């Protein structure tokens, strides 16, 4: 058994690749699309069930949509759960204004194609109104999304927010319930979570409180990509390899943009890269990659020796507990 | 009536219960590390933390202790879910703390498990904690208990030590009523029999010829007790026009057991009206049938007043209807911080239905080590006992041992909204 064979999980096979004259890999498409694997079918059905339970038991839910791959899967689950009806909730984007333009274009195109309602609330508005004070003008706005998010919850009186977070992303998330209760300050109390048994969810809250709902809790990064491949879902182009100017900083590739210029003495190089997560432009780093199709991304994910957040998020490494801290304060 | 399916599964869910003292976190860390499920940045992070604490090498227990409070205190507080895969199966671990005050976390983790791993420290022998873990597996009707006799390195890898624990614990398991049980001697710290047989040249446990822990998990055949009778608790009703029939409504839900085909005869409960399945609707188009665990939308061949909380079920194998102000018996684990009260009204959630409920009587509390019933007047946090419960509106139930979805419920506190109990419905007939 080769190394690759030994790490390919059950229920998955790599597509056979053939090289054309130009040496580019193409997936062999033979016959009809295969049925969803048993594992993905179960995950999909569980996510649909969770979404429907939340809609039935809360008054005013919203779905967080960023244009990232997990929230793209969330939209597909919402279609599976509610079509031919329209979604019984609006989409909500907490915009840092530090976006990759490709992601925002994608967001607007996707919302238009689905014919659903999108609410955008921006961290920039909160900064201009003085609700968020920056220590440095160019600092990451990721952490400040909390203020904007809690403001939007209050403004629209949302009592449930769907998020695409997964338990395999990070160790504080590994301990979070599918239905995660937040007090009137938006705080998460990890030591006092509601027991969650079988698939009986407790969605009851007091006025002013809300729940965060994570239908993709049991999915892994690989499941997300396999599902995107199976459902033939479009994702923003920056997930695929492209040539980009970067600098090498702290073992990471940092994109050179107007918001993140190279520091004095740093050498700008052009590399073939792709993003594994999309977020605030100032703290999202690409990885070196030549994966230009979803199948190639799946193959790369199987072989990757770094976690998704470890490789690409400059803000999660500050301390071993930084995600837990942010979550307690009301972060996604 | 009940079919025991030995279906090949591609995802195995297992729970682990134990404390840091048992080496539970180390065992899981070893399983993930040796099966190459740990990625480089995670290894680097635990290496940093290990050396910050002045220790050498990799403390594998750090992989699973996620919250900062847990790291500070060196204990596991809450249920953590882990995901890994090998070429033959995918695995979901519910990693739970072992001490008595965390019984409710253990019950949470075990409620969805196929296998419970009970850890026994070879040097300490069988503790009351190990018995409690096995007793919980029985109460939740888990198909299989795997006993990992850990820290074999501390007892010189002696076969006799392992055999003695195995004999004693097998007797306890019989007494408790464990469905199936297996034993594996391991050393999580060194790695023996976790992923590979023996890690050093000494071949210390050549006397053990069974599978390693991972081999066991990859191959164990799980006998799930799930009734084959069709159950479809309605989650939502859609008034959008479906298909050809102008008036038809769509019933959104998940097939919780059995399967359903177009044309099947069904009964809608609690009203008892009958109909035939007209359509099974998915985003991909109409289907001829849907299997257990599929989320779909159903339409019926005639107009019936159906709302959320009703159950569409196989006409000739319907669930039992507990009528309003009728009562039923159930085992519960009391999860609330306040003791059970016979004066108060609770909310009972079963399937997609939430009804007011009163606890009529506390019939017994189980000694958690022996499962022998004791007479008590209330239940406190982490107690497990048998109750008689009356409901204000009908619920449609199965006995838990026949159907885990139709037979499980939770109780909620109306004032605090806390989940105060998790229960399993005992009898099939109204014999309260």
List keywords for this structure.
heterodimer; A: 332 residues; alpha/beta; Rossmann fold; six-stranded mixed β-sheet; four-stranded antiparallel β-sheet; 10 helices; 12 strands; 31% helix; disordered N terminus; B: 432 residues; alpha+beta; Elongation Factor Tu (Ef-tu), domain 3; 3 domains; six-stranded antiparallel beta barrel; 7 helices; 26 strands; globular
Protein described:
The complex is a heterodimer of chains A (about 325) and B (about 425). In chain A, helix 2 (about 40-55) crosses helix 3, helix 3 packs across helix 7 and helix 7 (about 220-230) runs antiparallel to helix 8 (about 295-305). The N and C termini of chain A lie far apart (about 40 Å). Chain A is built from ten helices and twelve strands. With about 325 residues, chain A is of the alpha/beta class. In chain A, about 30% of the residues lie in helices and about 15% in strands. Chain A has a domain at about 40-220 and about 320-330: 3-Layer(aba) Sandwich (Rossmann fold), CATH 3.40.50. Chain A has a six-stranded mixed sheet with strand order 5-4-3-6-8-7, sandwiched between helices. A four-stranded antiparallel sheet of chain A has the order 10-9-11-12, with no helix packed on it. A two-stranded antiparallel ribbon of chain A has the order 1-2. Chain A has helices spanning about 5, 40-55, 70-80, 100-115, 125-130, 145-155, 220-230, 295-305, 310, 320-330, and strands at about 15-20, 25, 60-65, 90-95, 120, 160, 180, 210-215, 240-250, 250-255, 270-275, 285-290. Chain B is α+β, with helices and mostly antiparallel strands and about 425 residues long. Chain B folds into three domains: about 5-225, Rossmann fold (3-Layer(aba) Sandwich), CATH 3.40.50.300; about 230-320, Beta Barrel (Elongation Factor Tu (Ef-tu), domain 3); about 320-425, Beta Barrel (Elongation Factor Tu (Ef-tu), domain 3). In chain B, about 15% of the residues lie in helices and about 35% in strands. Chain B is built from seven helices and 26 strands. Chain B has a six-stranded mixed sheet with strand order 3-4-2-5-6-7, with helices on both faces. Chain B has a six-stranded antiparallel β-barrel with strand order 9-10-16-13-12-17. A six-stranded antiparallel β-barrel of chain B has the order 19-23-21-20-25-26. Chain B is globular. Residues about 1-5 of chain B have low confidence and may be disordered.
């Amino acid at each position: 058994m080769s190394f690759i064979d030994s790490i390919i999980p059950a229920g998955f096979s790599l597509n056979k690749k053939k090289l054309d004259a130009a040496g580019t890999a193409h997936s062999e498409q033979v016959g009809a699309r295969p049925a969803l694997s048993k594992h993905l079918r179960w995950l999909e059905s569980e996510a649909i069930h969770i979404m429907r339970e939340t809609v039935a038991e809360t008054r005013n839910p919203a779905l967080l949509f960023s244009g990232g791959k997990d929230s793209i899967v969330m939209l597909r689950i919402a279609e599976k759960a509610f079509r031919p009806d329209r979604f019984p909730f609006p989409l909500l984007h907490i915009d840092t204004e530090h976006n990759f333009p490709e992601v925002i274009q994608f967001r607007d195109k996707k919302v238009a194609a689905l014919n659903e309602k999108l609410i955008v609330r921006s961290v920039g508005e909160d900064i201009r109104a003085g609700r968020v004070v920056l220590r440095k003008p160019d600092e990451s706005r990721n952490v400040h999304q909390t203020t904007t998010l809690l403001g939007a919850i209050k403004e629209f009186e949302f009592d449930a927010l769907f998020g695409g977070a997964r338990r395999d992303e990070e160790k504080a998330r590994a301990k979070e319930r599918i239905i995660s209760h937040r007090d009137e300050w938006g705080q998460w109390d990890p030591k006092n979570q509601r027991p969650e048994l079988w698939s009986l969810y407790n969605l009851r809250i007091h006025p002013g409180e809300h729940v965060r709902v994570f239908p993709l809790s049991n999915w892994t990064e690989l499941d997300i990509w396999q599902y995107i491949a199976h459902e033939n879902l479009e994702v923003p182009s920056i997930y695929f390899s492209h040539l980009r100017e970067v600098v090498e900083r702290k073992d990471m590739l940092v994109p050179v943009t107007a918001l993140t210029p190279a520091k004095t003495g740093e050498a700008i190089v052009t590399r073939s890269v792709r993003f594994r997560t999309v977020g605030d432009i100032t703290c999202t780093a690409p990885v070196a990659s030549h994966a230009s199709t979803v199948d190639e991304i799946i193959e790369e994910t199987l072989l990757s020796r770094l976690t998704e957040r470890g490789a690409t998020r400059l803000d999660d490494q500050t301390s071993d507990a930084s995600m837990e801290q942010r979550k307690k304060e009301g972060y996604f | 009536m009940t079919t025991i399916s030995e279906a090949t599964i591609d995802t195995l869910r297992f729970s682990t219960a134990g404390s840091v003292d048992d080496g539970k976190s180390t065992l899981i860390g070893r399983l993930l590390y040796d099966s190459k499920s740990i990625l480089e940045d995670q290894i680097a992070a635990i290496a940093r933390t290990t050396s910050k604490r002045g220790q050498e090498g990799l403390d594998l227990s750090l992989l699973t202790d996620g919250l900062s409070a847990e790291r500070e205190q060196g204990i596991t507080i809450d249920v953590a879910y882990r995901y890994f895969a090998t070429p033959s199966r995918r695995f979901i671990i519910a990693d739970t703390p072992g001490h008595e005050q965390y019984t409710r976390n253990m019950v949470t983790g075990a409620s969805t498990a196929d296998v419970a791993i009970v850890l026994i420290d070879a040097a300490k022998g069988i503790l009351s904690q190990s018995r409690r873990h096995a007793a919980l597996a029985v109460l939740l009707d888990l198909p299989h208990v795997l006993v990992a006799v850990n820290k074999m390195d501390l007892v010189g890898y002696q076969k006799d030590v392992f055999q003695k624990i195995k004999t004693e614990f097998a007797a306890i398991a019989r007494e408790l009523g464990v469905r199936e049980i297996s034993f594996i001697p391991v050393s999580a710290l060194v790695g023996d029999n976790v992923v590979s047989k023996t890690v050093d040249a000494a071949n210390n446990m050549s006397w053990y010829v069974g599978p390693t822990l991972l081999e066991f998990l990859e191959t164990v055949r799980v006998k799930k007790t799930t009734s084959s009778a069709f159950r479809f608790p309605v989650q939502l009703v859609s008034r959008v026009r479906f298909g050809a029939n102008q008036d038809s409504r769509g019933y959104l839900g998940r097939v919780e057991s059995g399967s359903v085909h177009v044309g099947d005869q069904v009964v809608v409960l609690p009203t008892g009206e009958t109909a035939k399945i007209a359509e099974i609707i998915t985003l991909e188009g109409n289907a001829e049938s849907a299997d257990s665990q599929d989320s779909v939308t159903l339409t019926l061949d005639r107009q019936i007043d159906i709302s959320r909380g009703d159950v569409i079920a196989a006409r000739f194998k319907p669930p039992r209807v507990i009528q309003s102000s009728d009562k039923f018996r159930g085992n519960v684990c009391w999860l609330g911080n306040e003791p059970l009260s016979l004066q108060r009204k609770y909310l009972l959630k079963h399937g997609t239905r939430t009804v007011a409920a009163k606890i009529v009587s506390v019939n017994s509390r189980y000694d958690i080590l022996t499962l022998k019933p004791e007479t008590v007047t209330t239940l406190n946090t982490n107690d497990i006992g048998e109750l008689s419960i009356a409901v204000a509106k009908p619920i449609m139930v199965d006995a838990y041992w026949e159907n885990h979805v139709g037979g499980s419920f939770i109780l909620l506190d109306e004032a605090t909204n806390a989940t105060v109990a998790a229960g399993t419905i005992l009898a099939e007939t109204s014999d309260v």
